[in-house]
Hints:
This protein folds into 3 domains: 3-65; 85-122 and 158-224, Metal Binding Protein, Guanine Nucleotide Exchange Factor, Chain A, CATH 2.170.150; 229-334, no CATH class. The protein has 6 helices and 24 strands. It has helices spanning 85-92, 131-134, 146-155, 176-179, 229-242, 301-317, and strands at residues 3-8, 13-18, 25-27, 31-34, 38-41, 50-56, 59-65, 100-103, 109-112, 118-121, 164-167, 171-174, 183-184, 191-194, 200-204, 211-214, 218-220, 223-224, 246-251, 254-269, 272-284, 295-297, 324-325, 328-334. Strand 11 (164-167) and strand 12 form a beta hairpin.
Amino acid sequence: MNYFIERLPRLNTLNIYVSINITNVSLNDNSILINNSIIIPINVSKSNNFDILPSSNGFTCIRIKINTIPITHDDNIYDKYKWNYKQLNTILNESTNNSSFNCISCNSKLINFNKIKKFLPMPSELWYEMLDYWHCHKPNEEDKSSNNSKILKKFNSLKPITNGIIIGTYYFIINPSDWGLIIKGIDENKDIHCSNCDQLLGSLDENSGSYKLLKWNLKCNDEIFTKSSFVTIRLLEEINYSAVRQFILSYNDIKIKVWCFGVGIDISINNRNYNDCLKILFMEYNETVDSSIPILEIPYEESLIEFINSLKEINSQLPLPLKNFKNWYVSYVKLE
Length: 336
């Protein structure tokens, strides 16, 4: 039997789709018993109310009302991305901390945690655009004097303290002189590479002289940061700041139209669990139809390709009646 479970926390609803005709259902504290023989392991209460909806394309839905407090704010990006300020400070403060950031390709050690003085969180990925609201005397870009140029340079960049690391949603900003990094010479694109294996690590910020290390080019305690997470994070930030839900994701000729829904949705596909997901509808980009929808430029080709592939992969696993909504394909992306 194939099944799919979708938990909608803001609606206090649990939808369970099963590929059989249902004759009876009983709820236990940690499972659902279907037709007296099929057990689906899930935490529910005997007191929950449920309905059995009519079958569609061979799947029947059990809709259960969950007795929990609904969540009212669903798109907050803070602390949802992997290797955030809270997570890394927890590791940093462990007494037996032997962690490090290593090269994703050859595992060469780049930054030892025991040498880190402080992690500093980025205020926002759109921090520079918000300077007009944060400062009453922002430097005048038309003033070409040397003193103004120095001030403007400072405003245009972020530089960590000595042995400190600034944490962005998808990158780290570091002072090269603090760590003695294994870095190959900077190329004409201002990219930096691992001197041991030539793996791309990040880029040079010419304003501050700092290095911007991309998280998906690093490992921490054998954990990795997926390239597609960059796209998910960008979508959440755009939703937060613009309240827009539909976008054209673009990198050169690669384009896709997406429609974003609530964050924090948990799903299970035949016992494969995906927690804290963003539900996304997607379709091919049609320039003649979609000209009014905002275009979100993705600067990293590999991130957009991996994101699109992950959407298609999850969609292929969904039950037939849930694969599409009108002209859209349905999918989910995990926040990590």
